[in-house]
Amino acid sequence: MPIYDTVLEAVGGTPLIRLHRVGGPERARVLVKLEALNPGGSIKDRIGLALIRAAEQSGRLKPGGTVVEATAGNTGVGLAMAAAVLGYQCIFVVPDKMSPDKIRLLRAYGARVEIVPDVPRDDPQNYQQVARRLADSVPGAAYMGQFEQTANPDAHYRTTGPEIWEATHGQVGAVVAGAGTGGTISGIGRYLKDQNPGVEVIGADPVGSIFTGPVAPFLIEGMGEDYYPDTLDADLVDRWEACSDEEAFAMARQLARHEGILVGGSSGAIVAVALKAARDWEKPGWIVAMLPDTGRNYLANIFREDS
Ligand SMILES: Cc1ncc(COP(=O)(O)O)c(C=O)c1O
């Protein structure tokens, strides 16, 4: 094991793990990429430093400044880790549907957290709008813009995509991922299709999100949207499959109990979609499902003792 200079060097390099006991019988073999093993517990650790560097390079963020972001929690942790190492302050704006565990987590990293109602994007109280106004009004503050900055998908093109390709020795038939900003699915999808245009990119989408429509409220956190973000290249997605909150949360509980893998509700949705794809899969190669975050974020809701 190498000695790292800072925690940021420990981001990435997450394992692929084969599923055995949930689902079945499937024709294809399903691997999960466990992003919970990043030091901050999610796939968003991969974009924290990249967003900060992009803001520094464009001159928007100066030494000792304040990082501001609209986040469902995980991007906040990724940014907070990088901000701690680089000497920045943090303000995060989160919608009130986010789990209390995640909000405590952001505060544990020393961030200021503003909680706003979970309202559509055109509402002035929407978390992205509030975060932008804060960045304009706080001296030395810069909006990170995970929904707009190409640094987000680029981080996955540089790291997550190559990790999948190398670990499977190019034997990947399909990748299944959710889309919040779309950074993950676009970055990985572009990298894998650049290596082999035959790799199928499957988007898992909460019932109520726009990618499978119609738009309605849903409980799954971190994936699903009510608009198409700039950071999503929808042309790279071969097909979208919807998954309900109930099915997603039930699958998250099964993964913990039968595979020993504790992940969040979005991972449950992604695995449910991956297993369905695997059932009538005719092509060679692994199906790789991206599991974005740890179930420790959801002990108060998905993993409540009575659930
Ligand atoms: C909890 C969580 N975080 C992050 C992501 C990745 O989203 P993005 O599209 O923003 O890369 C997802 C997607 O499934 C997610 O569920």
Give the C-alpha Rg: 18 Å
- Structural class estimated from helices and strands: alpha/beta
Mean pLDDT: 95
Number of domains: 2
Low-confidence stretches: none
Features:
8 helices, four-stranded parallel beta sheet, globular, Rossmann fold, alpha/beta, binds pyridoxal-5'-phosphate, 307 residues, 2 domains, single chain
How would you describe the overall organization of this protein?
- This protein is an alpha/beta fold and 307 residues long.
- It folds into two domains: 7-42 and 150-298, Rossmann fold; 45-143, 3-Layer(aba) Sandwich (Rossmann fold), CATH 3.40.50.1100.
- The chain is 35% helix and 17% strand.
- It has helices at 45-57, 74-86, 100-108, 127-137, 151-167, 183-195, 245-259, 265-279, and strands at residues 16-18, 30-34, 66-70, 89-95, 112-116, 141-143, 172-178, 200-206, 239-243, 286-291.
- The strands form two sheets. Strands 1-2-10-7-8-9 form a six-stranded mixed beta sheet, with helices on both faces. Strands 5-4-3-6 form a four-stranded parallel beta sheet, with helices on both faces.
- Helix 1 packs across helix 5.
- The longest helix is centred in the middle third of the chain and has 17 residues, at 151-167.
- The mean pLDDT is 95.
- The structure holds pyridoxal-5'-phosphate (PLP).
- Pyridoxal-5'-phosphate binds at residues 42-44, 74, 178-185, 221-223, 264, 266, 292-293.
